[in-house]
Amino acid sequence: MTSFYLSKPYEPPQAPQNLPLDLPWALLGGISPNQFMKTYWHKKPLMIRGAIPAFHLAKQSNTSLESPIPPEALFKIASEADLESRLIEAKPWRFSEGPLKKKDIPQITKPDWTLLLQGMEAKHPAAAAVLSWFRFIPDARLDDLMVSIAGLGGGVGPHFDSYDVFLIQMSGRRRWAISQQKDLSLTPSLPLKILQRFKAEQVWELEPGDMLYLPPHVAHDGIALDSGCQTWSVGFRSQSYKELLQEGLWRLAESLEEIPDLNARFADPKQTATHSAEQLPQEMIAQLAKQLTRLKLDQISTFLPGVTAYLSEPKSQAIFDGPEKIQTTEEFGRSLLKNQLTLHPQTRLLALGKTVYCNGEDVTTGQTIPTKRAWRTLASKKYLKNAKIGKIDEQNSLYTSYQGGWLISKPSQRSL
Ligand code: SIN
Ligand code: CO
């Protein structure tokens, strides 16, 4: 087994800005992102040896690479409140939710436990770099990067997930067994969702640098073959149609607040005497139909801003601390000229055409043209360099987002 303390950690590179979508990628086992999406995504599993070639190359030259995040750092992160952590112990199954103190976590030499840390891209630049490799898939679908660290034999039991996941082996070995079985019934009275009858169909031992892609509902069971085994899962999300529609409609309903003429009251001077007083009046139906058409409430384009805003909401645990010393608008404008503006690691940005949503809010409507342009660059590249925004006032959304800690101004580095 590799030693944690003697080998040097692997530093994942940041993905290039323009991903070559039709060239073969080692990460995808020598196929292109286009081919991957067509053949495997959301359809069938794919096991990739040497998805991160650095581990294999190190082995060939008799050196070993370790995970960029050592176990001690992971244990410390487990005690932090702004991230979701879980400890799962097997034999018998036990489940505890974080934050977890060091003394709550079994020693690395002890068997049969797994510590899961969600949203690690916000905690470590290496996790953020790994996530950047997967931007050939829309940001709206991306959930987060989860790191698991386990004692020998540790695992979360045979189960299935409702989401697509890339399981990247980063330290030690893990044996993955998978099954496309139809029977997904769960064992009753357990604190975890564990399949009652798991029948492995394929089994692989993953070494550092190997990766397993699983679409939703493929049953899987991963058992750590080495103590300190680390698996990094790039997880996706897909909300139910109910959630997408409800969240979009709520926001659409709220947006009606901004239309003052809707405060005018319903008027029916044309109402005639009626024999069916219990019926909703035709006059009211006709007028409401007219309003729906006038306000385009019957069109998808009116509904999508609410959905995009919703999908750009940060994780509920996210905490944004503003800068210690806030720059004035003039200082901020000057610093944009020479500094880099980056996203707080918990910030989510999504675009709908030319409109950009940051952490649930439309940040482009009503802003100046250079500000809008800056947000579009931030949404696509995740950073902004040497930006000429012109005069910045207190209402400028770049400035308010910087004040709120959503954006971070820092000295320019070499290009990412
Ligand atoms: C793990 O990393 O230990 C579990 C990940 C999973 O099965 O989804
Ligand atoms: Co799983």
TrEMBL record:
It comes from the Bacteria. Gene3D superfamilies: 50S ribosomal protein L16 arginine hydroxylase, Chain A, Domain 2 (3.40.366.30), Cupin (2.60.120.650). InterPro entries: JmjC_dom, NO66-like. SUPFAM superfamilies: Clavaminate synthase-like (SSF51197). Keywords: Iron, Metal-binding. GO terms for molecular function: 2-oxoglutarate-dependent dioxygenase activity; metal ion binding. This is Cupin domain-containing protein. PROSITE patterns: JMJC. Its cofactor is Fe(2+). Residues 113-253 form the JmjC domain. Pfam families: JmjC_2. Coiled coil: none annotated.
